[in-house]
Amino acid sequence: MSDISSAGSARESAVDTATRVFVEHRELLFSIVYNMLSSVVDTEDVLQETWLSWASRGGAPGAERIDSPRAYLVRIAVNKALARQAAISRRRETYVGPWLPEPLVTSLADGRAPGDAEDAADTAERTQSVSMALLVVLETLTPLERAVFVLHEVFGYAHTETADILGRSPAAVRQLAHRAREHVHARRPRYRTDPHLRQQVTERFTAAVSGGDLRTLLMLLAPDVTLWADGGGKATAAGPCPVRGRDKVARLLANGATRARRGLDIRYRRVNGDPSALLFSGDSPFAVLVLDLVPDGRQVCGIYFVTNPEKLEGLT
């Protein structure tokens, strides 16, 4: 009887240890996988699969000791995210209208999700997400190029570490990294707008749109501005294709404001790390608005408008 009790205690201890280790690394895993997939729902599914693999390995009594749980968990999560890419690509083929990443929303104050009890240190890794604009560019990479770019450029993994994670040679990883970096930087030069200036421009922009102020919109918009509106065929959107050009975008926004629902409430949050706007109709989220600014931060060059209700679930 005592042997059975001891075996049960050992199994419980192993499971408790596996759970603690996974929880310690969950935010890092979330951030890496989200930046690979651009979907909170798919990221949570991958983390669940990662947990099940980890629990069966790390929670087994007498299992061989894992020298680096962090590296082991990242390897599981990254490869499961890569495996999920095929299913995601099939969904995108039948998606209605422009597709945008699922917004990752946190508060303006400290990057903490509204109502979340985690402390700032725990949320730091989760909010280490690239901007909405960069996520859109990352969608044009191959899955392997994107994984290498995220691991190296966003999280600082050495090419040798990335090679171990992906089961590739360091030379192959360096080649993937070079292609990805050249591709991304050609479409998205490196710059980061001051958050306070971004907040100011976002507030001016939303006020101009709400008021149908065409003159102010024309001043705020860059000549080559592009508007992406993602309704997924389930909500209001600008059309089946992105809208390009200052005059077209300004008139679309100004006319759209006059037809929009009355009583929309604007709340400012961080979306993928950048000050942005959430629009609510009563207690229900109506849209997420993210602006991309030119390098000096004074004009808007990209507008990302997400109204697909499936991508707004859980927003407060």
Automatic annotation (TrEMBL):
Domain of life: Bacteria
Gene3D superfamilies linked to this entry: 1.10.1740.10, 3.10.450.50, Winged helix-like DNA-binding domain superfamily/Winged helix DNA-binding domain (1.10.10.10)
Alphabetical list of Pfam families matching this protein: Sigma70_r2, Sigma70_r4_2
Entry-linked SUPFAM superfamilies: NTF2-like (SSF54427), Sigma2 domain of RNA polymerase sigma factors (SSF88946), Sigma3 and sigma4 domains of RNA polymerase sigma factors (SSF88659)
Alphabetic keyword roster: Sigma factor, Transcription, Transcription regulation
Domain RNA polymerase sigma-70 region, residue spans: 23-83
Coiled-coil region(s): none
Keyword RNA-binding (UniProt): no
Stored PANTHER family: ECF RNA POLYMERASE SIGMA FACTOR SIGJ (PTHR30173:SF36), SIGMA 19 FACTOR (PTHR30173)
Subunit structure: Interacts transiently with the RNA polymerase catalytic core formed by RpoA, RpoB, RpoC and RpoZ (2 alpha, 1 beta, 1 beta' and 1 omega subunit) to form the RNA polymerase holoenzyme that can initiate transcription.
Protein name (Swiss-Prot/TrEMBL): Sigma-70 family RNA polymerase sigma factor
Originating organism: Streptomyces yaanensis
Origin organism lineage: Bacteria, Bacillati, Actinomycetota, Actinomycetes, Kitasatosporales
